[in-house]
Queue: 2 jobs
Job 1
Amino acid sequence: MLGLSIGIACVMAIMLWIEDELKFDSFNKNANLIYRVLVEETGMEGYSNSAMTMPPLAGALKDKLPEIDKTANFESDWPVVVIAGENYFNEEGMAVVGKDFFDIFSFPFVKGNPQLMKTEKYSVVLSEKIAKKYFGEDDAIGKSIEINKNIVKVIAVFKDIDYNSHISFDFAIPEDLFGKGTRWDNQCLYTYVQVMPNVSTQVLRSKLYDFMAKNINQESKIKLFPQPLKDIHFQKNLADEDYTNLGDIRYVYIFSFMGLFILVLACVNFVNLSTAVSEQKIKDNNLRKILGASKAELVRTSVLKSLLNSTQATGIGLGILYLVLPILNTFTHKNLGIALSNPLHILSIVSIALSTGILSGLYPAFFLASFSPIKMIKSSKTKSSLWQRNGLIVFQFSLSIFLIIATLVSIKQFNYIRQINLGFDKEHVIYFNLKTNKSDYLTLKERMLKIPGIEMVAGKDYYSPTIMNMSTVKWTGELTGNISFSGHEVDEDFFSLLKVKFTEGQNFSKNSRSEWDNTVIINQKAKELIGADPVGQILKFWGRQFKIIGVLDETHFRSVNESIQPEFYIYTYSPKYIFVKYNNSFTNSNNHLTDQIRSTVKELYPEAPFDFKFLDATYAKLYENDKRVGTIYAIVAVIAILISCIGLFGLSSFNSENRTKEIGIRKINGAKISEILIMLNTDFIILITISYLIVVPIAWYAMHKWLQSFAYKTELSLWIFVLAGIIALMIALLTVSWQSFRAATRNPVDALRYE
């Protein structure tokens, strides 16, 4: 009963997690009518898909396509300085949205009227968290704040986005405030559309595909296509997507199989123990057959008893689930829970209880009803029952060993991803947001370099390891299509600070500042597109021409779960992010250095807030979800092993009691305790060995296929399979040895008196 209860609790927890993943963005009233527009760019390597589009696209789609009801641009993670009262804040959660954004998306508002954003250019909507941060318990509606020197009025407050939305932001302003973008060569935002009720995905796809060539530029090679809103959470093959808030359909499949494995293990346990215990009373069951009970009656009685047991196990499992849900929610950063008012949850609970009861009861029922009454009255032991029970043990431990191997492989893969060489040094680097100008930045660098402990200072226009600003790039010899590169602006010390190596050419030279405006550095991926000897060639983007002066070695400035994209770097005189390299003597707990940096910043920018981050911690956050998933793998594997051990413990107890007289006779004839232990454990060792031999080739194939889905993957090592076998064997031996030891040390006189 305990194993079945734990298994049911685990299955229900997995079902809640899968449900939570599958209902992303379903809170939107018109979710089935909403699409995100994607860009398919043809180039020298075929094509690439991009989630970011051009600023004028939303307006053009609404004007040209009658099938589209509403459109809106969305741009997030803008770094801004906010002034509320006398307080200054560095914020990175601002979104810039189109006029119809809050008509398309059903974000719940608690105060105010977001529709005013359509007519009031200097307006802002805040989350509850931000409203409380700026105004405390006062009503925020009608109050003003300053965002990058623009005075805006709070018109509405929305509920904090802690629910399932692929879009996340803390406050939003209308795109009219900073001016709508008009460039068609800059992919820097997301475009969403809501279609008319009767427009299908196929119709929209046909309308979007050649939209650019038919309506904007006849020579355009860019193709557009729609992405349904509910598909966004699981689509991870886009060049410029923010992956930190996305799911992975692979995990949904894996946990679905794990849940099925756990339920099957629990049922097999129940069946094995039912048939084992039933053999002790098998003569009574067969007496009922002699007295006239039909096979159908025996089967019905057995199934009803099994249903009663599964109902009790489901109740206990619900209790276990309620106890562990708070811990699970904290760990997964979700808000999972059983809602008895939710018909789907009630149906799931009832289905689990019924399916478990029927599946667990049918086999024992037919097993007991199939024996000849005369033979079974004479003996309760049958070779067929032994073979059937051993087969179930082999099946059970095959699943357990498979889960052990899968867990070890996943942990090795996640560790490999975290430890892969990124191509730059992220250690002992802090960075902070500071909007500078040319003269002040040079002065700031000079003063900061005088602070003891600081080795180097560098700047960048914008920094986020999850967001890219894509720009269409052309070059000499580029004949086909428009290819987008991720564009960046850095100063001459940025690559030196991060210890990024060059494979060709050079960095921005401190002695040639007059040439900085017209030079560009590219990465290895861009070189592969451009071809051999890229140094000296001309790139065309942003309506200008730039000469390539250097090629970076392979670097992963984004998550290694993603493939590297082509990138270019031009020079900036006034970066928005400052990077500081400090020596090893500075630690996280020592605030002396950051206090000096803060004082230096305040001398030049007295009103600027100073909030710094550690670069290594920022990159560690990219893999938090992978780390959590790996831990869940391990937990599920442990639960599976625990369930198997519970069943194995019961079976070893039954086996020991069934051979009590044999053990007593052997001890009287001089058998040692160690010999008795070997005799009792040998059968189980053979079964574990058979399970291992069966499952290893299956697990190798499955894990090999799973690893193929990663851009960067570890190797399948032999030690993983050896360790999995050792773990399974040791756990099995520890489980059965206790019962074997008790049987082996029992007084032989008591053993002979048995039965």
Job 2
Amino acid sequence: MCAQKASAPARLAAGLAAVVLVAVAAAVAVRLTHRRDLPAPAAVEPPPQGRAVDLKERIRQQEFESGRLVAEIRGDAFERGADGLNHLRGAIEVANLGPDGRVVSRLKAAEVVYAPGSLRFTVRGGVRVEAGDVVLEGETYDYDKAAGLFGTNSGGRFESTTLAGRAAEIAYDEAADEIRLGGGFLVEMTGPASEAKTLAVSGESLTYARRERRGRAEGRAELRGGGSLATAETIVFAVAADDEAVESAVLEGRAKASFMNDASKSGEGGEVDGDRITVAFARDPFAVRDASAEGKVRLTRREAGGAAVRVEAPVAALTFDRGGGLSGWSASGGVRAEIREADGSVRSLEGEKASFDRAADRIRAESVPGRRPVADSIEARVEADAVMICPAAGGLQASGGLRCVFRSETAGRTPGFFTPGEDVLVTCEAMSLAPGGASALFKGNVRARQDEGSLEADELEFSSEKGETRGRGGVAAALPGTSKEGEAAGAVLMRGQEMTYVAETRALSFTGRAAARLPEASLEARTVAAVVAPGGKSLRSLSARTDVIVRKGAYEGRAGAADYEAAADRVVLTGNPVLTDGKGGSARGTKLTFDLADDKILVENEGSGRSTTVIKS
């Protein structure tokens, strides 16, 4: 029937129309939704002797505005119950109509209860609100029109084409245009063209201000999506103007964000945690775009091949690729990183600031005034103006005033030419260290030293796998000499344009106008080869070939070849040797011997006229 006066059902119709409008607003707004207890309804006198009165059946009520039908209410029965409250029961349906007469929202329930003369309603029994693509469901909802509060403490669900969620408590504050979820909640969002969940927010409670499009989740809140999982005591997020995506989030209190790379099954990914983390999201596709962390930041990254990096710093910034995989990071304020390479090698990196570029697979630390980066591992300690480490491929590069110490603990990795079990110090302008320290290349004014032994060159390359050392660009080597009774050992100095040392044979060779300086003599030749004594502490023997020149004092010997034995302390020249005395005198023979121990020179001639001339040098 259609009432012409404001009967009880008519007043109920106006109230329920408001309920639907507010419920719909709440459902649409629930883009991410804290508990607020609703005020208790005022006490109402019960009917006489506890009986129901004013009973009406088959209720149909219509509401008009300016002659247009705007709402329609249906129910099986209306009565004032024994509790003194008005009840509308049985298959209740409240519809709101638009200007064109079509239903724009609908409420269904088993019962509506309210106090006479009041606009405080309880809707219960399979409550369902529909508005467009939005559905709100639950067992009981309360609405206080004067206070502008709508909600439930008995659990509710909501769903749309881009949104689904649930909470134990749902409240909507009409005046503040604010939605609150409490008692534990979950909200899931999808993109307009996707059936997969793109974002999920959960926690103990959530407050969402619709005007500001800003939400606050509390109680070990969690935000999952875009290739990441973020958790914190509190998460504050901002929603896009179209309500279809979260643009950014701020995590505080035990904040942590985990991320996966494109190949999520490969084991790649990592996490960052700190006192505060800020995350920004991209929309197409929805993924983490960048993030920043501050306050005791710890960043961990895992590579598919088993490489891993752990970074500690006061401040860090992260960037991500289109798929939500970490593409780079930077840290500052005093950085310490531990890098586990794919082969299991572990090294640390310390400095004021550092950064990582995934495309180049490179962590780079740079110096600042008063502090230079240091890389440390079981095989070497490197200090330089810039240090770069490749976590996945392995290895290290450094440049600028470099100091590298090869550690004595790794005897098997000691650079060839030097004695195992003792530290080796190398200074230069740049270096490259292969994974696991298998080889090392030093460039630019290179100086390597161990006790009295040393190497200098424009470029030095050590290979612990092959046991070889190679030098290029003007190489000079120093070896301790053989000590004589009562005398200190004199160093043996050797040089050439190029040098090669083979640890297996202890063979040391120089080419390119090579030279050697013994304690009592010197020699030059196109090539000079030597054998180092076991232990690498001294010279055992030496040989020179082609255009050999030996000098001792004023005497000079020239020949095609020369050989030196440290034990005998003699240099023997062969191949048409010629001796000159610096005064114009000369002598020839088949063999010329410089006896350095006895301070003598012997010129020998073989054949029918065999003779030996002895000269006191």
